[in-house]
Amino acid sequence: MRGKVSTFCRRLLALEDTPERIALAFSLGVFLAFSPLLGLHTFLGLACTFLFGLNRYALFLGIFINNPWTLVPIYSAGTYLGGLFVGFPSLPALPDFHLRALWSSQFWIQLAGQWQILKPMMLGSTILAVVAGIFAYVAVLHLIRQRRKRTVEV
Fold this sequence. Notes:
This protein has helices at residues 2-13, 19-34, 41-52, 56-63, 71-86, 105-112, 115-153. With 154 residues, the chain is an all-alpha fold. It starts with a helix and ends with a helix. 26% of the residues are buried. The model has no long low-confidence stretch (mean pLDDT 84).
């Protein structure tokens, strides 16, 4: 895992573009990864690269922070955060959840009937998306500038 993160960072920092544009593309990808628009991340990212001329690689590195291994923790944290603002729902029963269920329309139909859980999830995920996007922009911009500064000095 450490090797993959290292490779990811090296590739992101080596992209040929201005630091601000790379950081913007990556942070927009992170924003989309944390957004409550589950299932639309890739499509929205692709649309953003064409509409705004952003670096596709940086944007998709940000989007793919949300993957099958991180999906449940991201949306659980978003739902919890939203619950702090709008209250925690008392639900009679949630639909059976397993990773394969995410691709089943029946799961989403059952979940949509549970607006009490969608409301905090939508709010909390949106808050997390904004915070994570801002943090990603600042962090990546700083890292790229530091690396380029070191490269020029050497």
